[in-house]
Amino acid sequence: MADGHDHGSAALAQHAGAAYKRRLLAVFCLIGGFFLVELVGGVLTNSLALLSDAGHMFTDVLGIGMALAAIQAAGTLRAAPQRSFGLYRLEILAALANAVLLTGVSGYVIYESIRRLNEPPEVLALPMLIIGTLGLLVNVVAFWLLRGGKDASLNIEGAYLEVLADLVASVGVVIAAGVLLLTGFTRADPIFAIAIGVFILPRAWKLGTKALRVLIQAAPAGVDVAGLNTELAELDGIAEVHDLHVWTLTSGMDVASVHVRLQPGADSHRTLDETRQLLRTRYGIEHLTVQVEPDEDGGCEETGW
Asked: Of 43, 59, 132, 293, which has the fewest CB atoms closer than 10 Å, so is most exposed?
């Protein structure tokens, strides 16, 4: 019985290296500092839109802090006998936490905004406009810092989505303040706060869904497991394929394991190489385990799960 176990390069270590950590730290400091400004400004101006933006900034500070902690842990606490895959999953947990935070804050803002529509309070439009404009500039800088890494990691994508949501929220604050200043329409503040919440919710759900797919070890979205099973069974020398599992360990790191039973007289080394090649070239799976079972061995029993 021959085993092939191929340890691919750790994608997380590449895309969450020193450059991304520095950018995340810069965004953390930038947004963390301005969160206090928006919080005080929202209270003083009585603006729900401004307070909602401050709330989103607070979730940014928490989310990006968790992202930094997850990257640091994944990069320094390597595999151990009881932690054979290291701590790569921490970034997925951080992404899920970000999604939950975004959903909670958005839901509260929508609820409070609907309540305020009936009795809109007086809002100080000019200070609201000034603070909203400054917040918009802060979010533009943060957005620029994170946009390059959003496709590399769910963790960084979570931070990116939070900053994007804040950027849109800041635009809404500026527009609401402008409408208030020019027309005196007091319902502009809760209306724009609702719009901000509605914009953020589906993006939070999408991020949370991606994180949950990884945590429940579902097959990657682009991998047809049934089709892969058929392709493996059609390779020369393979009589049967069983115990095929494909999952995602962390962003950019798909993993597979499979048992293949050989046909009589088949070359086990050639079959192993062709199996590896198929998984690498067609499915992009570098980290894989292939158990090759000789025909005379009778194979092994499939697991019941």
From this structure: 43
